Amino acid sequence: MKQLNILPQEGFTLTLTLMVITSLLIVINFYIKLIEPNDMQQTHMIRLFRIEPSRYFQSAELLEASSELFFRSLSFGIFFHLNHFAFWHGLTFALFLAGSRLGIKVLCLPLYGRGKDQENPESLLNILFYLGIGIGVFLSLFFLLLGKQFSPYPFFSWYTGIAGLIIWLVSYYRLKTYSKLNHLTYLTLTHETMKEKIAKIDNIELLGIEMKDRDINVSELSPLLFENLSGISYLNAIFLKRMSRYLQRKILVRLAILSVLFGIELLFLLFFKEKINIPMNEHSFSKFLFLSAVPGYLIYIGESYSKFCFYHLDRPLLRYNFYRERENILATLKIRFLYSIKLNFPIFVALNICFGTYYFNFFTPKIDQIIILVITQAISMILFSFYFLYLYFLLQPFTEGLKSKSAMYNILTFIIYYMGYQLFTFTKSITMPILLVSLGIIVVILIIGYLAVVVFAPKTFRLKS
């Protein structure tokens, strides 16, 4: 394959490129919703003060465009003036931003009420938002990798400004004449949604674990799935089977993020592999191995899984002594750990593909190194699956409202995230012996944690008041 000669952008041109890709590829995704249930001002004006939606949105968009055009033109114009360019370049880009943002809102109006979730008219827009963010990040990095082959200057020309003005006028006219706007607004902004948003503000801790009816698997389950289970094990197994859709959706989000990162990795290898000279020795491999294990603390499901199980199963049962008996706690720990491994396994495979691709491109493949790489990933998955389960059973920090009342739990949770961050800075001094000792210490910690649960959990695993 012919190697592309790509020169990176510098200084003023790089700043303009960042302005363009950030504004038009990433931030624009936050403007796809014209009707926004989370905007209490919209709900108050339309539902409480009974302003006609069409009139409200026309006035709101005109006011927003005027204020943003003024402040953006001023800030962008000053920026260009300080860099010895004409002031009007900032005005043209501000016009294009105003047009593109109103345009995307109007284009997305027909998507309200089109999703599978009929209780949530904006469900399809939520999917589009996350998809747009992923594609935007991917394209942003792609344009940055193109270097000087991508020119941001056309986005600051008079032609772009005129195009932005035309887009805004056409979009505003479409907004004014869109016959279904009032109906879609009343469908989306209901009194129930307003009460729901207020309730969410009052119970912010519950946002991450709330479920809807569609998240519960109500289909008939085969008895063969649970024929060898009884008691607490059966209760946990059927609970996790019924509630699996919610947890699997969280896994899919993480896999989508990894897919975007893997795409970026492939672009990097396609364009820049020949320009990177990595010494293929044991020290460089140990650093790579170390870095491959650290991201597990961010990507694997850990604390959110424990919170979910507490709120939807343990919370009402912790009042009973039998539920806190040692045998029942160990049975619960076992089945939840195994299910955690089952949930995290697709992430484990995806991480091995990402790091394996990098390894095969920059290192001479060796069987022992490949085995160590997979084992390291497995230990990382087990650690971050067990860590929060151990803390949960030993400290059980949560109240009925999911607020943490345990200072020790909060400290240890902070430590794991802080240590994960600090480990990224430790790679320069890592060696293979240090890495192997670290992995051994992790295994010892897992064993000690299990013994601590056996001894102390029956006394500490109770509902906080």
TrEMBL record:
- Transmembrane region(s): 12-32, 93-112, 124-144, 156-175, 251-272, 284-302, 343-364, 370-395, 407-424, 430-457
Q: Specify the superkingdom.
A: Bacteria
Transmembrane is among the record's keywords:
yes
Sorted keywords for this record are: Membrane, Transmembrane, Transmembrane helix
Q: Does the keyword rRNA processing apply?
A: no
This protein is called ABC transporter, ATP binding protein
User: What organism does this protein naturally occur in?
Assistant: Streptococcus agalactiae
